[in-house]
């Protein structure tokens, strides 16, 4: 698996067992012997290891503008592939269930993740969900202090160690709200506070890598698409009401 991590993170436990001619139980035992709770945790660890594409971005000399753009596109493609590789149906369904059952959703994030938080907010509005996403980090914490059972608080941070989103989830949990996070670090303080963790994977360097942000945004769009598919009539009615509301403003 270490020699073929690109392939391994996109395969099921049964596929790995079949490829290595052992039982599913043996694969699970190997994961636990290595210190992981299960196969999914092992895949997350593999996905978060540095990869060849990162080396290309960091060390390959820029000989043309097109080559620089090509390296970025490759990094984004790799991030999306790796993020899909660690996404499982159970976690996705749990996130959708939290959204569907929430009386109110609060979304928080700062910096590049703050842009993703605003995208999440806009998707929620289009789905007909009651949602707030204050841009100011102190306002996010203040809103979290007003949440309670039945509410959902979503925090977005690629590193998972930025203090503001961590404080938002801490406050929300202390008030009894459900918590969801989108992060690139499944063992981070933020992830440990979340009831459901969606992991975005990127191997770029820098504080706010573009590929990481696009992977986060794609997870948000995945939540939007799956929720809409589950609630077709509700979403269609919401869209119709919004179109009627904004149509008079069209030139």
Describe the secondary structure blueprint for this structure.
Layout: H1 5-8, H2 13-19, H3 24-33, H4 39-47, H5 52-59, H6 65-86, H7 89-101, E1 104-109, H8 112-126, E2 131-132, H9 137-145, E3 151-157, H10 163-174, E4 178-183, H11 189-193, E5 196-199, H12 210-230, H13 232-246
Parallel strand pairs: 1-2, 1-3, 3-4, 4-5
Helix pairs in contact: 2-3, 4-6, 5-6, 6-12, 8-12, 9-10
The biggest beta sheet is recorded as:
5 strands, parallel
- The outline comes out as globular
- The end-to-end span amounts to 58 Å
CATH architectural category of the largest domain:
3-Layer(aba) Sandwich
Strand proportion, as a percent range, falls in 5-15%
What are the secondary-structure elements, in order, as H or E?
HHHHHHHEHEHEHEHEHH
Rounded to an integer in angstroms, the radius of gyration calculated over CA atoms is 20 Å
Helix fraction bin: 55-70%
Instruction: Count the DSSP helices.
Output: 13
Alpha-beta classification = alpha/beta
Question: How many strands?
Answer: 5
Q: Overview of this structure, please?
A:
The protein has 251 residues and is of the alpha/beta class. It has 2 domains: 5-86, Arc Repressor Mutant, subunit A, CATH 1.10.10; 89-239, Rossmann fold, CATH 3.40.50. Helices cover 60% and strands 10% of the residues. It has a 5-stranded parallel sheet, with helices on both faces. α5 (52-59) packs antiparallel against α6 and α8 (112-126) packs parallel to α12. The radius of gyration is 20 Å and the shape is globular. The model is unreliable at 50-59 (pLDDT under 50).
């Amino acid at each position: 698996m270490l020699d073929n991590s690109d392939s391994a993170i996109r395969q099921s436990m049964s596929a790995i067992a079949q490829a290595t001619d052992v039982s599913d139980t043996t694969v699970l035992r190997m994961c636990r012997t290595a210190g992981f709770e299960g196969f999914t945790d092992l895949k997350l660890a593999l996905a978060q290891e540095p990869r060849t594409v990162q080396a290309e971005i960091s060390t390959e000399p820029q000989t043309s503008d097109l080559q620089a753009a090509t390296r970025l596109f490759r990094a984004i493609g790799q991030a999306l592939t790796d993020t899909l590789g660690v996404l499982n149906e159970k976690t996705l369904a749990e996130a959708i269930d939290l959204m569907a059952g929430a009386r109110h959703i609060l979304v928080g994030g700062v910096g590049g993740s703050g842009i993703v938080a605003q995208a999440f907010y806009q998707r929620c509005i289009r789905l007909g969900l009651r949602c707030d996403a204050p841009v100011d980090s102190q306002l996010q914490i203040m809103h979290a202090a007003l949440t309670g059972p039945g509410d959902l608080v979503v925090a977005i941070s690629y590193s998972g160690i930025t203090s503001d989103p961590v404080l938002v989830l801490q406050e929300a949990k202390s008030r009894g709200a459900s918590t969801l996070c989108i992060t690139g670090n499944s063992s981070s303080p933020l992830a440990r506070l979340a009831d459901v963790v969606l992991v975005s994977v990127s191997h770029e360097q820098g504080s706010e890598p573009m590929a990481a942000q696009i992977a986060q945004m794609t997870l948000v769009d995945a939540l939007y698409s799956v929720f809409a598919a589950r609630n077709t009539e509700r979403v269609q009615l919401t869209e119709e009401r919004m179109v009627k509301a904004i149509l008079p403003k069209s030139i």
